[in-house]
TrEMBL record, chain A:
<feature type="domain" description="SUF system FeS cluster assembly SufBD core">
    <location>
        <begin position="210"/>
        <end position="451"/>
    </location>
</feature>
<dbReference type="Pfam" id="PF19295">
    <property type="entry name" value="SufBD_N"/>
</dbReference>
<dbReference type="InterPro" id="IPR000825">
    <property type="entry name" value="SUF_FeS_clus_asmbl_SufBD_core"/>
</dbReference>
<feature type="domain" description="SUF system FeS cluster assembly SufBD N-terminal">
    <location>
        <begin position="137"/>
        <end position="202"/>
    </location>
</feature>
<comment type="similarity">
    <text>Belongs to the iron-sulfur cluster assembly SufBD family.</text>
</comment>
<dbReference type="InterPro" id="IPR037284">
    <property type="entry name" value="SUF_FeS_clus_asmbl_SufBD_sf"/>
</dbReference>
<dbReference type="InterPro" id="IPR055346">
    <property type="entry name" value="Fe-S_cluster_assembly_SufBD"/>
</dbReference>
<dbReference type="Pfam" id="PF01458">
    <property type="entry name" value="SUFBD_core"/>
</dbReference>
<dbReference type="InterPro" id="IPR045595">
    <property type="entry name" value="SufBD_N"/>
</dbReference>
From TrEMBL, chain B:
<keyword id="KW-0547">Nucleotide-binding</keyword>
<keyword id="KW-0067">ATP-binding</keyword>
<dbReference type="Pfam" id="PF00005">
    <property type="entry name" value="ABC_tran"/>
</dbReference>
<feature type="domain" description="ABC transporter">
    <location>
        <begin position="2"/>
        <end position="246"/>
    </location>
</feature>
<dbReference type="InterPro" id="IPR003593">
    <property type="entry name" value="AAA+_ATPase"/>
</dbReference>
<dbReference type="InterPro" id="IPR003439">
    <property type="entry name" value="ABC_transporter-like_ATP-bd"/>
</dbReference>
<dbReference type="InterPro" id="IPR010230">
    <property type="entry name" value="FeS-cluster_ATPase_SufC"/>
</dbReference>
<dbReference type="InterPro" id="IPR027417">
    <property type="entry name" value="P-loop_NTPase"/>
</dbReference>
<comment type="similarity">
    <text>Belongs to the ABC transporter superfamily. Ycf16 family.</text>
</comment>
Length: 481, 250
């Protein structure tokens, strides 16, 4: 075995930090999926008839679909009847204020570094905390309410703002979009809803924190963000799960709508349990995220730092419908041990003078497989569309894989599409140079990797960027090449 | 400070160093000269702990400690600095950030408190003046797109920041025009104290016009075959290495 590989083996030994389980009683649906289960979920949430009908329609469509097999990942067949589709932590009363939240739940989030206590927050970040299937708390509601901003759980939105939900849900990711989107549409339990009214610049970061806790449970949240004309919002999403030997399913949908001159910045630090070093357990993360720049001069920007999950299947995309609209995708995807990631983006240029930018940085270590898959599509009437794509891969060790699948479809001759790609290894020379200055190998790797991913990390809000840097270092501990 | 006895080292199956002896005391400047392929860079690399080289015999003591037992970062923390012949590029990492990490790692290993941002910047400003390097260069990615002169000056700047006890300059003059050479040499001279020592590895005499050595050693076929005062360098410049080779084979 080469020296490289040996060091690599030594360093990748760090443990998943968020693997604890909270002992809370849960209110669960029986295992399996059927129309009855969907009725059960809908009833639990006291939903109106139209919502139930929408779910059932999605379910019936899902039954006609087949699981996609084109991603560059392999996993045993999923038994969809062996999953619990609804699990809610039992709270004695429905909390009317943050003080009434079950202390056990509160402690869980404290342990994750997320304070639900508004006074304790140093920076202005409003949090919606979702555990298993339901949202347990949303902070700063009152302050946001004064500006007309709606930030609440999806269930509350269905109850209190049905006209908005009805208008926008499924408008970007239709229930029939794909296998996992259809499944989500049928059984989604909660998630966050956010509406920024005309001309309002949201004064704080909005954030949703997802936590899977219960065993054998799938998490199917749905997030809907609507930015009305001339508004701005920056949205953060974080996620973790306990360590379990079996795989758990996570099939989420995120939809973003940006009206004229609106701007939405969506940042994710995805840290679901990646499975053990031997590849046992971990989350199957099958997520559909898409935004539409509906109005002219609108902008949607996705930034993701993906370090978790056993399997990631995720392509945050932007449909550039409005003229002069802008779509961005910045991604760092790290895979280690036996993780597999097939991730990238789609930029669909429909409007004139639309611009998109893709910066993807893949980092593979251990025996993992890391694929970038991206589509840039310029439709016929998209005069002067521009795209720039940069896809870099960094390999650590000699047993991992990096793959790039770029697709470009251009139907307008005025389009300019650029694609750059590089593959590199962390050089022994670089490590030695750092060592010679007194920096040990582990710190050196973190330094080099953070340098490599800097362009993406710079896109994250400050507080998140620091967390992401640490996360990168932890995810790669022990994987020098 | 540094005591090398009968040092032997291989790269692959090939023996490069064949029993090298050298004593360096605090406050001294030693020049190691020699024709190409004589083992000069190997010596520098072995002292810094590069793992491509296998030490097969001899010993190296640094203040009485067995240097060969230490990892490269431990050697650095003990106060050994290597100015690289070909400094390495690290994209996305600024010199400032790199050095802040290095300085604080070294401090941590020595049981000192890390420098905070203000203390670090103060120190940086002071050293920047010393080696005539500008702020813009230090904010760029380490060595990426630097000219030959900028890379070498950056090495000396790092040396200034890390304040080593023993600095080894590996062919620091290669690829430098005369102005850059002078600035680099002046930087090295300003960093000289009675407590530190410098080993200058060079092929040509011209660097020694600026960095005046106390001793000059000629390395040939993996051994130091001749040592003398600074005038030896001039003699080598004038007569070349052939007479040394003749002496050795005679």
């Amino acid at each position: 075995m080469s020296k490289d590989t040996q060091i690599l083996e030594n360093i990748t030994q760090s443990e998943y930090k968020y693997g604890f389980e909270t002992k809370i009683e849960a209110d669960e649906a029986p295992k399996g999926l059927s129309e009855d289960i969907i009725r059960f979920i809908s009833e639990k949430k006291k939903e109106p008839q139209w919502m139930l009908d929408w779910r059932l329609k999605a379910y019936r469509h899902w039954l006609t679909l087949k699981e996609p097999r084109w991603p560059n990942v392999t996993y045993p067949e999923i038994n969809y009847q062996d999953v619990i589709y609804y699990s809610a932590p039992k709270q004695k009363i429905k909390p009317n204020s943050l003080d009434e939240i079950d202390p056990e739940l509160r402690a869980t989030f404290e342990k994750l570094g997320i304070s639900l206590d508004e006074q304790k927050r140093l920076t202005g970040v409003a949090v919606d905390a979702v555990i298993d299937s339901v949202s347990i708390a949303t902070t700063f509601k009152k302050k946001l309410g004064e500006l007309g901003i709606i930030f609440c759980s999806m269930s509350e939105a269905v109850e209190n703002h049905p006209e908005l939900v009805k208008k926008y849900i499924g408008s970007v990711v239709p229930a029939s979009d794909n296998y996992f989107a259809a499944l989500n549409s049928a059984v989604f339990s909660d998630g966050s809803f956010c509406y920024i009214p005309k001309g309002v610049r949201c004064p704080m970061e909005l954030s949703t924190y997802f936590r899977i806790n219960a065993a054998n449970t799938g998490q199917f949240e749905r997030t809907l963000i609507v930015a009305d004309e001339g508004s701005y919002v920056s949205y953060l999403e974080g996620c973790t799960a306990p360590m379990r030997d079996e795989n758990q399913l996570h099939a989420a949908v995120v939809e973003i709508i940006a009206h004229e001159k609106a701007e939405v910045k969506y940042s994710t630090v995805q840290n679901w349990y990646p499975g053990s070093k031997e590849g046992k357990g971990g989350i199957y993360n099958f997520v559909t995220k898409r935004g539409i720049c509906l109005g002219d001069y609108s902008k949607i920007s996705w930034t993701q730092v993906e370090t978790g999950s056993a399997i990631t299947w995720k392509y945050p995309s932007v449909i550039l419908k409005g003229d002069y609209s802008v779509g961005e995708f910045y991604s760092v995807a790290v895979t280690n041990n036996y993780q597999q990631a097939d991730t990238g983006t789609k930029m669909i240029h429909i409007g004139k003078n639309t611009k998109s930018r893709i910066v993807s940085k893949g980092i593979s270590a251990g025996k993992s497989q890391n694929s970038y898959r991206g589509l840039v599509r310029v439709l016929r009437r998209a005069e002067n569309a521009r795209n720039f794509s940069q896809c870099d891969s960094l390999l650590m060790g000699d047993r991992c894989g990096a793959h790039t699948f770029p697709y470009i479809e251009v139907d307008n001759p005025t389009a300019q599409v650029e694609h750059e790609a590089t593959t590199s290894k962390i050089g022994e020379d670089q490590i030695f140079y750092c060592n010679q200055r007194g920096i040990d190998t582990e710190t050196a790797v973190a330094l080099i990797v953070n340098g490599y991913a800097k362009e993406v990390l710079n896109q994250l809000p400050m507080e998140f960027a620091v967390e992401a840097q640490k996360l990168l270092a932890i995810s790669l501990e022990g994987s020098v090449g | 400070m540094l005591s090398i006895k009968n040092l032997q080292a291989n790269i692959g199956d090939k023996q490069i160093l064949k029993g090298l002896n050298l004593e360096v005391k605090a406050g001294e400047v030693h020049a190691i000269m020699g024709p190409n392929g004589s083992g000069k860079s190997t010596l520098a690399s072995v002292l810094a702990g590069r793992e491509d080289y296998e030490v097969t015999g001899g010993e190296v003591l640094f203040y009485g400690k067995d240097l060969l037992e230490l990892s490269p970062e431990e050697r650095a923390r003990e106060g050994i600095f290597l100015a690289f012949q070909y400094p390495i590029e690290i994209p996305g990492v600024s010199t400032t950030n790199f050095l802040k990490t290095a300085v604080n790692e070294v401090r941590k290993a020595r049981g000192q408190e890390p420098l905070d941002a203000v203390q670090f910047l103060t120190r940086m400003k002071e050293k920047m003046k010393l080696v005539e390097i500008n702020q813009a260069l230090l904010s760029r990615s380490l060595n990426e797109g630097f000219s030959g002169g900028e890379k070498k000056r950056n090495e000396i700047f790092q040396m200034a920041m890390l304040e080593p006890k023993l600095a080894i300059l590996d062919e620091t003059d290669s690829g430098l025009d005369i102005d850059a050479l002078r600035i680099v040499a002046e930087g090295v001279n300003k960093l000289r104290t009675k407590d530190n020592a410098t080993v200058v590895v060079t092929h040509y005499q011209r660097l020694l016009d600026y960095i005046i050595p106390d001793f000059v050693h000629v390395l040939y076929q993996g051994r130091i075959v001749k040592s003398g005062p600074k005038e030896l360098a001039l003699e080598l410049e004038e007569k070349g290495y052939d007479w040394i080779k003749d002496e050795v084979s005679a």
